[in-house]
Amino acid sequence: MLPAQERSVMLMKKIAKGTHRNVNYVSRLFQPQNVVPKDGIVKREDSLSKSQKLMHDLGVIRQASPGAFHLLPLGERSLQKLIRIVDDEMCKINAQKLLLPLLTSGELWKSTGRWEDIGEELFTLKDRHDRELVLSPTHEEAVTELMASIPQLSYRQLPLLLYQVTSKFRDEMRPRFGLLRGREFIMKDLYTFDTSAEAASETYKAVSKAYDNIFRRIGIQYFKVSAVTGVMGGSVSHEYHFPAAVGEAKLLICESCGYGTSLESCVPSECPECGHGFLKCCPGIEVGHTFLLGTKYSVPLKARFTTVEGKSDFLQMGSYGLGMTRILAAGVEVLSLPDEMRWPIALAPFTVCIVPPKVRKEVRKVQWLT
């Protein structure tokens, strides 16, 4: 490999000749910024998080309506970098990518009981034929119906791991903090199907390892904590959090062994895992959640497979989510200063900015590279 100085010279020559393809000019970048006039008065916004203010003021996002945001070119570039990391780690565990419809039948949600359980946070509507539909906050019902529609699904086809990266909707009463809590957001959701509870547990371990790899590649400290399953159901659940003062989750973390749990109220106590450490209370931003679901969805939606003995049995499921746009905002929240936005290097929209020297009276062009 050529020394760094020689590589830089070659790169500059390519830019000068116009032969380098991955060049983006700052002067052409769509980045509407919130510019404060000289001696202008800035109105204090106590309700804004640090990430929301910085991402808005520096042209990464733009609010469309309460809880919904335009993701501008810088934000979209960061999102695509995150998606590439996720796709890479999902590929390593043989997960396959698909795309499910955002509109799902209300009857599906009623059959699993979540129409009532989720309640007013569920975005619902009716079509011209008076059929009830849901703007999905998650896709357990839809993907389970998909599996139920496949005739003669064999044990030989399992385990099966299916995931997507798509928009989700939640009718938040008080959307706040920009991308940290909105009514529309982008999520990576993975659904797994196994032949037995034991096999599903092994798949859960494999996906959890992939999630650990994703967060290590992002490069921000995170906590993995045990959690309640809630309306999702199932027997096992873990959350992934970035520690941050603005975080709404209350975490208890053992400073000795790293054990953690998510609770409604923080009461420091002795660690139940190692027995000699103490649990310290800290706030966190939830950026991921995993569930071992069992047959909560496969039974009511009749999703079955044929066993090795030729019998019919219900699929054992798992559900695994990553808040993609929330990860972007949480990364900015954790790393930035009040007046200086900082990205984790793995998600930075651009990693190199070249300012060529001024040549005679020509106006120099500032260039950003991928």
Please explain how this structure is put together:
With 370 residues, the protein is an alpha+beta fold. The protein has a single domain (48-248, 285-369), classed as Bira Bifunctional Protein, Domain 2 (BirA Bifunctional Protein, domain 2, 2-Layer Sandwich), CATH 3.30.930. Helix content is 26%, strand content 28%. It contains eight helices and 19 strands. The protein has helices spanning 4-17, 50-57, 73-92, 106-112, 114-118, 140-148, 197-218, 324-335; strands at 23-25, 61-65, 68-71, 96-97, 103-105, 123-126, 132-135, 160-169, 184-194, 223-226, 236-243, 249-254, 260-263, 279-294, 304-306, 312-314, 316-323, 352-354, 367-369. The strands form five sheets. Strands 4, 8, 9, 10, 11, 12, 13, 14 and 17 form a nine-stranded mixed β-sheet that branches. Strands 1-19-18 form a three-stranded antiparallel β-sheet, with no helix packed on it. It has a three-stranded antiparallel β-sheet with strand order 5-7-6. Strand 6 and strand 7 (132-135) form a beta hairpin. The longest helix is centred in the middle third of the chain and has 22 residues, at 197-218. The chain is globular. The two termini are 20 Å apart. The model has no long low-confidence stretch (mean pLDDT 90).
